Amino acid sequence: MDAKTYMAGVFDRASDTYEQVGVPFFAPVGAELVRQAAPAPGDRVLDAGCGTGASLIPAAQAVGEHGRVVGLDLAPGMLAIAARSIGDHGLANATVLRGDAEHAADLLPGERFDVVLAGMMLYFLPDPPAAVRSMAALLRPGGRLAASLLAQPSREEAEFLTRVAVALAPFTSAAGGAPSPIGCTRPPS
Ligand SMILES: C[S@@+](CC[C@H](N)C(=O)[O-])C[C@H]1O[C@@H](n2cnc3c(N)ncnc32)[C@H](O)[C@@H]1O
Fold first, then answer.
1. pTM score, whole prediction
2. Residue 56 and which of 15, 80, 92, 167 are 20 to 30 A apart at CA?
3. Does domain 3-148 have CATH number 3.40.50.150?
4. Is the pLDDT of residue 189 over 60?
5. pLDDT value of position 147
6. What is the rounded radius of gyration, in angstroms, for the C-alpha atoms of the chain?
7. Atom of ligand 1 at shortest distance to CA of 11?
8. 19 CA distance to ligand 1 middle (Å)
9. 92-125 tens-digit pLDDT
10. Which residues line ligand 1 (CB under 6 A)?
């Protein structure tokens, strides 16, 4: 099994758990990413690795009815929750698309975005620079790519990530027990 199929499977199986465990942590991080990227009303935004919508929802609210947000993710379970959340928020300007961020430019030929978001996802990719190049190719001249990463987790964040890793452990085991890319500890497999 290649790394991306493995990763898509982990997040797919973990999507419900992710929503329960992750919202208190990921929702404010997603909102802050959008605040820093500052999409304007009418802008077009690509949210790569959108997950369940932590940055997709605030981005869609920021760009308003004349803007557009596309959420791209590999895991159908995460996308299903994001799509439900788009509906729950009554956002007609947002859609989701299943696909690989590393091939974003091929998936959205001819599209140009004012802002590309990559929230808490680059470290799940086998080749982050290739993904960044592909995403950046979709920016219009003067567009912005904004990413969030945990460069140096605080003690509380490290503890939280350990809890996330433990919560994901059953799902990683089901995929063959490959190493977890998140957190500071490796969950038992
Ligand atoms: C930690 S979650 C972050 C989700 C969301 N951006 C947030 O801030 O909550 C990482 C997401 O990246 C997605 N992902 C991993 N590899 C990917 C790839 N190659 N292309 C697209 N999405 C990917 C996973 O399915 C998962 O939904």
1. 0.82
2. 167
3. yes
4. no
5. 93
6. 16
7. 25
8. 13
9. 999 999 999 999 989 999 999 999 999 999 988 8
10. 4, 7-8, 11, 26, 29-30, 49-51, 54-55, 72-75, 78, 100-102, 119-121, 124-125
